[in-house]
From TrEMBL:
Gene3D superfamilies: Aldehyde Dehydrogenase, Chain A, domain 1, Aldehyde Dehydrogenase, Chain A, domain 2. The active site is at residue 253. The keyword 4Fe-4S does not apply. Belongs to the aldehyde dehydrogenase family. It comes from Mycobacterium florentinum. The lineage of its organism: Bacteria, Bacillati, Actinomycetota, Actinomycetes, Mycobacteriales. It comes from the Bacteria. Residues 21-477 form the Aldehyde dehydrogenase domain. GO terms for molecular function: oxidoreductase activity, acting on the aldehyde or oxo group of donors, NAD or NADP as acceptor. It holds the Pfam family Aldedh. The keyword Oxidoreductase applies. This is Aldehyde dehydrogenase. Keywords: Oxidoreductase. InterPro entries: Ald_DH/histidinol_DH, Ald_DH_C, Ald_DH_CS_GLU, Ald_DH_N, Aldehyde_DH_dom.
Length: 486
């Protein structure tokens, strides 16, 4: 796999399309140092048009006539290519966005091949006949590709989030235009390299890194049949409005402000051991991170102390170092935003127990000290808005009913966890949380389980068999019923 650091072409129609005179170039900066890591061309409207045309043309070619089994073969070949380059891809993403390498290895290095192989398995059964004897007809239900997919992804888990769209889209027989963001433009080319290595027909997958304008042009393009978006709630609302007007199917995976309910019988050691991975994954730059920790009043001081000690002890450093638990944020802008939230927390009356600033020994890059606020009221801004950095809030509750009320008193509903020694209590609390996913003494996305949100966290689901459905158009073919008297 060619992990080049300078990309002045786009991957369109199976070849490298040189950037037009009108397109811009961005420097991709290394999150840990702020130094230039490479450069990438950013798509303008000409590249969006070219990519959508190529994707539409591909549907009229061999890909449009392919069987599920044939597509599965191509997807498995792509998976092999991505898996072979997995370590390099993961390291590149860590350098782009600051993600600690162990997480990046799983999420960006190997998850794409896991998703491709999983959906390849589902593709093999898509052509199975689904014949339903009815009262007035024999109905044959055909599952056809929905068409050209616009896949718009953010920088925080760029390869994994692209895989959650590309794998089901290819399984369904769709073609895809992937629009990665400028911050992580470089890793996205691994998809192009894998498509070439796997011999994917021209135009089935197109890669055009670009900014918001390119995303907006792609989403509204007349040649697009379906939009799959992951990103902020603000952008999701704008995209949802456009798709509503166009009556264009759309899935929206948006922000979160998830709660971890720690009960009075919880194993606190187990909770704080899991805290880095569940409350602060990817330095807090994770949509489903459980950043509101709900502690029973009877154990509040003990839990604040344990959370504070754990967070204070986290290893901050170069995301490529094996021992690093907290890397830098993706950009200077993101760091300013998070520092602004920390000031809001302080001025709003929350009690800072650790962190709160820029670590003294990290003058380069965009590091922030992992931070904990205690005495947080759920009405405070830091408890309501998605901070997207290494900042935790600890809130107090009186009983299980109040814990549920606080957990559900949020504009968002994406993740969540319950920590308890009692499995029945855990299941009961989990069932009362208004959210798209919840973990009991654990939390880990899995390719077999549908993932997505309720409320301002989005519309629709990715992953699992449910994640394939948005890429399929169902067609009922009616035939005369077989008469019993014949
Ligand atoms: P963002 O919304 O600014 O950008 C995401 C992507 O959309 C980028 O490619 C961007 O160029 C593009 N974009 C932005 N505005 C657009 C518009 N109006 N039309 C079309 N495209 C547009 O988000 P971000 O800051 O890059 O990412 C962080 C956000 O993503 C957080 O809010 C996080 O919670 C969310 N996120 C959600 C999930 C999930 O599955 N629910 C997963 C990861 C991240």
């Amino acid at each position: 796999m060619d992990i080049s650091r300078d990309r002045d072409t786009f991957f369109v129609g199976g070849t490298w399309l040189p950037a037009s005179a009108a397109s811009n170039t961005t420097e991709v900066l290394e999150a840990a140092t702020g130094k230039v890591l490479g450069s990438a061309a950013l798509a303008g409207s000409a590249e969006v048009d070219a990519a959508v045309s190529a994707a539409r043309e591909a549907l009229g070619g061999p890909w449009g006539a392919s069987s599920g089994a044939e597509r599965a073969g191509a997807m498995r070949a792509m998976a092999t290519s991505l898996q072979a380059g997995g370590k390099e891809i993961a390291a590149l993403v860590s350098r782009e966005n600051g993600m600690p390498r162990r997480l990046s290895l799983g999420a960006n290095g190997f998850f794409p091949s896991i998703a491709l192989n999983y959906y390849a398995g589902l593709a093999e059964h898509l052509d199975d006949e689904d014949l339903r004897p009815g009262a007035l007809s024999h109905v044959s239900v055909r599952r056809e590709p929905i068409g050209v997919v616009a896949a718009v992804v953010p920088w925080n888990y760029p390869m994994g989030l692209a895989a959650m769209k590309i794998a089901p889209a290819l399984a369904a027989g769709c073609s895809v235009v992937l629009k990665p963001p400028p911050e992580t433009a470089l890793d996205a080319y691994a998809w192009a390299d894998a498509a070439l290595q796997a011999g994917l027909p021209a135009g089935v997958l197109n890669v055009i890194p670009g900014g918001r304008d390119a995303g907006a042009a792609l989403v509204a393009h007349p040649g697009v049949d379906k939009v799959a978006f992951t990103g902020s709630t603000a952008a999701g609302r704008a995209i949802g409005e456009i798709c509503g007007r166009l009556l264009r199917p759309v899935t929206l995976e948006l922000g979160g402000k998830s709660a971890a309910i720690v009960t009075d019988d919880a194993d606190l050691d187990a909770f704080v051991a899991a805290l880095p991975d569940i409350c602060l994954p990817n330095n807090g730059q994770t949509c489903h991170a459980t950043t509101r920790i709900l502690a029973p009043a009877s154990r509040y001081a003990e839990i604040v102390d344990a959370v504070t000690d754990t967070v204070r002890g986290l290893q901050v450093g170069d995301p490529l170092e094996k021992t690093t638990q907290i890397g830098p944020l993706v950009s200077a802008a993101q760091r300013s935003r998070v520092l602004g939230y920390i000031e809001t927390g302080k001025s709003g009356g929350a009690r800072l127990t650790t962190g709160g600033g820029v670590p003294a020994d990290h003058s380069l890059g965009w590091f922030i000290e992992p931070t904990v606020f205690a005495d947080v009221d759920n009405a405070m801004t830091i408890a309501r808005e998605e901070i997207f950095g290494p900042v935790l809030c600890v809130l107090s509750y009186a009983d299980d009913d109040e814990a549920i009320a606080i957990a559900n008193d949020s504009d968002y509903g994406l993740g969540g966890t319950v920590w308890t020694a009692d499995p029945e209590r855990g299941a009961a609390l989990a069932s009362r949380m208004r959210t798209g996913s919840v973990g009991i003494n654990h939390y880990a996305l899995d390719v077999v389980g549908p993932f997505g949100g309720v409320k301002a966290s989005g519309l629709g689901r990715e992953l699992g068999p449910e994640g394939l459905a948005p890429y399929l158009a169902l067609k009922s073919v009616y035939r005369p019923p077989v008469r019993a008297d014949r």
